[in-house]
Amino acid sequence: MNVLRTRIRAGVLVVGGGLVGLTAALLLRHHGVDVTLVERHATTSPQPKARRFHTRTMEVFRELGAAELVHDAARDLAGHYHMAAGRTLAEAEQLPLWQPSGPAGEDVEPSPELPCLVAQDVLEPVLRRAALDAGADVRFRTAMTGFTSGADGVVAELHDLASDRHERLQVPLLVAADGARSPVRTALGIGRSGRGAIGGPGVNVYFRADLADVVRGREFNLCQIEHPDAPGALASVDGRARWVFMAAGGETDRDWPALLRAALGVAAPDLDVLSVLAWQPEMLVADRYSAGPVHLAGDAAHVMPPFAASGANTGIADVHNLGWKIAAVLAGTAAPALLDSYDAERRPAGWFAADQSSRRSTDLRSAAPDDALAHPYVLAAGGFQYPSGALVGGPDQGGEIEPVHVFEPAGRVGTRVPHRWLDATRTRSTLDLAGPGWALVVGGDPAPWERCAADSPVPLPVHRVEAGFLPAGCALLLRPDHVVAWRGPDPAQLPDVVRVLLGAPAGAAPPLSAIGTADRA
């Protein structure tokens, strides 16, 4: 290969221009990091794929200032949150919405953001435009044909497929969001563990048919079809004309128009099959998320059955975790060791999401209890607790453990800060206090905390919040990704806690054992 030139950039190379890669580019630009994104395909995905983005993902888009863009893109499926089931689509009935309540029966509001139904082929162009507007160097029809990595970073070989030009790009770090077959993961020799195949193979049939009159008044996200000759599930892509039928079995050469009309229970004269894709649900998680300057995210790090778009949502959480850490290291405010916490935090989270997705029943009518299932809001609102990582006083250090079978966020170390509205108009949430910077949330008099926060190695705004999860005299230190990094009652410990979290050199801060951890109130 004839390399025309070598360019050295101080930022990050993102490989993969899907949902996770584009969100990674947006997050890195949000933190002021120079970003080059390459994607070998000419356009974003033409397939609907993931469609449900839960509250935690929408909180990430909220931080980026993109939540309204996403909700606007999702307007076709607004209100399509019900599930449905029936012998055919024409006979199907909506199933009741699940409405959780708190211990005393009160309504639970887990987030400042509602979940969002929007097809991946609609959302990706929105994210691509936003990344370009944010200043990312986004290059579609550009393949990374090889790379080397070492102590000095990554040298990537790039091929511009449109112009047939080659380039060598040297960057400090690489984020691989290059899909389930990830050439980057393969080149690094990183294996995967998990259950492997889950159930039998399936086929996704993407088709067009104007069914607006058929579903009017019974709008749904997913409909279970129980016809003996055409069992499967029907997913609504735009609520009117675009649909995906998911059938069991790996055969792709069936008479799909006839089978679809049987499942629909109507003639559908305009039915047009657009694509037929065989697939196999799997549960596999990379044995390492990081290898030196290279970090895996999204499907490159974990694959799982598509329950509620768990893979896409988990991947977006990956890069939300990684983005601020990369920015801190590149800016010199954190030691490179901070990036080790990405694997320590996100690999257990990926395993948890993949396991939970694998356990979910495919029978929408079933209400059978399963003691292994986490509370739905633990999945949707980022309720998984990091056991260790960029934390002081987390579970692996004796900190309080967050339950997963109930949704009772209490500001424990390693968890996302609980949502509480901060104003009467319900426009500002505790989730808005951190990101892209750090924040300190205190109960009671903020003055002693403000004095000590002035000695923090990073800017640390102090916010007084009256909330049940925050006793008077206690403070929560929030990372830029809204995660509680430390909880304690002693303001004097605060500067050293921050230094430890940022990977201060030996001697610059006391050992973890010398620092107070959690207030047990």
Automatic annotation (TrEMBL):
<keyword id="KW-0285">Flavoprotein</keyword>
<dbReference type="InterPro" id="IPR036188">
    <property type="entry name" value="FAD/NAD-bd_sf"/>
</dbReference>
<protein>
    <submittedName>
        <fullName>NAD(P)-binding protein</fullName>
    </submittedName>
</protein>
<dbReference type="Pfam" id="PF21274">
    <property type="entry name" value="Rng_hyd_C"/>
</dbReference>
<dbReference type="Pfam" id="PF01494">
    <property type="entry name" value="FAD_binding_3"/>
</dbReference>
<feature type="domain" description="FAD-binding">
    <location>
        <begin position="11"/>
        <end position="356"/>
    </location>
</feature>
<dbReference type="InterPro" id="IPR002938">
    <property type="entry name" value="FAD-bd"/>
</dbReference>
<keyword id="KW-0274">FAD</keyword>
<dbReference type="InterPro" id="IPR050641">
    <property type="entry name" value="RIFMO-like"/>
</dbReference>
